[in-house]
Amino acid sequence: MYQLNKTAKTNFIKTMLEIAGLVKENFSKLTFALVLVLLNSLITIFSPYFIGLITDELILKGLRYELFVALILLFSIYLVYSLSSYFQIRVIGKVGVDTVHKLRNKIFEKLNELPISFFNSNKSGDLISRINNDTEVLNGLFSEVLVRFFLSFFNIAGIGIFLTFLNPKLGVLSVGLIIPLFVYTIATNRLFRNINKKSLDSLGSLSSEISEGLNNFKTFIIFNKREFFNERIKKSIDDNFRKSTLASFVNGVSSLIYDLAGNLATVLVITFGLQMVKNVEITLGTLIAFLLLVNRFYEPLKTLASLVGTIQRSLASWDRINEILRMETNLKVTQKENEKIYSNEKTMIKMIDVDFGYDHSLVLKDVNLEIEKGKTYALVGPTGSGKSTLASMIMRLHDPVSGKIILNGYDLKSFRPDEISDQIGFILQEPFLIEGTLEENLKYGNRKLNHLTKSELLKEIENRNLKEVLNKFRNGLDEYVGVNSYLSLGQKQLVTFMRAILRDPKLLIMDEATSNVDTKTEKLFQAILDSLPADTSKFIIAHKLNTIRKADEIYLIANGRVEKIENLQVVLEIIRKSDY
Ligand SMILES: Nc1ncnc2c1ncn2[C@@H]1O[C@H](COP(=O)(O)OP(=O)(O)O)[C@@H](O)[C@H]1O
Ligand SMILES: [Mg+2]
């Protein structure tokens, strides 16, 4: 249900309405810009006519002073045109940037709201591309494309009407080619767009091929597969070369045809126009106006044809963004019950008949489990049996399909995410570190430590006996632990361990948290765990015996069912019999 579509479908009118809603607050700015566009269009249409008038009435009649005034007027008109263009770009650019800013914030708010399973079922690359590229495409739409589109449209319509009005015969002659051009555009549009899309796609797959290759470079070398890597990249490059060559060819041809039509129309106007001037059907000024306008008529046609594709791409981008915005979280926080569902002061977590599955098949079946304050629990079971799943249910990363999970007497669903994470420290099986230093990672999402200075944080670390763990980092709190650091998996586990302990959790869940540290460090962990306040509950998923030995209760999970195991001997038996 949280799977994003690869290819979003476009419903033009609905999309347009949604986009209009997005720029609602900037409506006056947009209207202003549109008025300026209209003004420019009028200047484009009427200035050649004005030049024609100047020719007929002033130059040919030799009125020097009036000519001088008229030229100054003409210059002023062009100045107005430039100023208007400038303000269009300013105003509309602001609208574009505003809108993208708003959109990105909206997406982030949404991502914060969405459950973990959303991130499980979507590649982060795709999300990043939606947040970055698709919003940028929309920025282009607002800041540039729409203005050019309307300007071109106004110019074509205005010039077409004006020329036909000025002289029907010459008018039809000069704009008539638009009909075959229009037919040509419609006929080739789909084909050419496909060719261009294939060229863009092949560029996309080339870059993903390269990035995949670089990510797996070690694997390629270990398996002596360099040849394989080279061949794949080469194939991608060749493919991209062929497709982009074809694309640039058809684009060139199209451009040529539009130019040809413009030039042909100019020739027609000159040939017939001169004849008409000779026959005194039109004045020389009118002919000049015609010549100037014919050129301005065919140019925007070319722009328009290319913009149609851009606009369609923008709409697709909007759909891709909107798909995220429309998603609803299924982990809504519910109203807290008036009375406790379950009242036993000693119990912190209680799972009642919990069923859960990621898809139709159940991973957990009918799980009943009680976690009491201050007790230590061990959960064992084969790989893939649902240990991590069970642990993440306690953090409410997923909701049960049926059954209930209760925290301190109330339904887990009635707690806000921060209320849950205040009480439960979770050390994930796969250490998750944020970009930055050890200090930043320890403070991350911790409201109590957030504002501490370095020395205050150090004191907190010492108070919790974590100093020795910290000493394992050469640069102490300043150690860089981000994505590009060279920390081993074990060292990353040290960070997440410290981070969890520093939260002073009432319940500490450790999902194979010591699987990659040495025995000495593990003993250190154990000592720290033993020094936690007596009412801290511990839920430990582990393979190692010494961890299990310390537990008050041991549970085995297999085939989706969880059962309590009476003594260590039985566990040893099970472990010995199974493969792990
Ligand atoms: N995000 C997920 N989407 C779909 N299936 C999943 C997901 N995470 C785990 N599973 C499946 O659920 C089962 C239990 O996984 P997990 O809880 O990680 O097992 P364990 O921690 O015991 O090794 C496995 O079959 C695994 O493939
Ligand atoms: Mg696991």
UniProtKB/TrEMBL annotation:
One Gene Ontology term of the molecular function aspect: ATP hydrolysis activity
Keyword vocabulary terms for this entry: ATP-binding, Membrane, Nucleotide-binding, Transmembrane, Transmembrane helix
Entry-linked PROSITE patterns: ABC_TM1F, ABC_TRANSPORTER_2
GO cellular component: plasma membrane
Lineage of the organism: Bacteria, Candidatus Dojkabacteria
Protein name as it appears in the record: ABC transporter ATP-binding protein
SMART domains referenced in this protein's UniProt entry, alphabetically: AAA
Residue ranges annotated for the ABC transporter domain, each copy included: 349-580
One of the Pfam families matching this protein, by short name: ABC_membrane
Gene3D superfamilies cross-referenced by the UniProt entry: ABC transporter type 1, transmembrane domain, P-loop containing nucleotide triphosphate hydrolases
Transmembrane spans: 30-51, 63-81, 145-166, 172-192, 249-274
Species, as recorded: Candidatus Dojkabacteria bacterium
Subcellular localization: Cell membrane
InterPro entries per record: AAA+_ATPase (IPR003593), ABC1_TM_dom (IPR011527), ABC1_TM_sf (IPR036640), ABC_transporter-like_ATP-bd (IPR003439), P-loop_NTPase (IPR027417), Type_1_exporter (IPR039421)
Membrane topology: Multi-pass membrane protein
UniProt entry tagged with the keyword Secreted: no
Annotated ABC transmembrane type-1 domain residues: 32-313
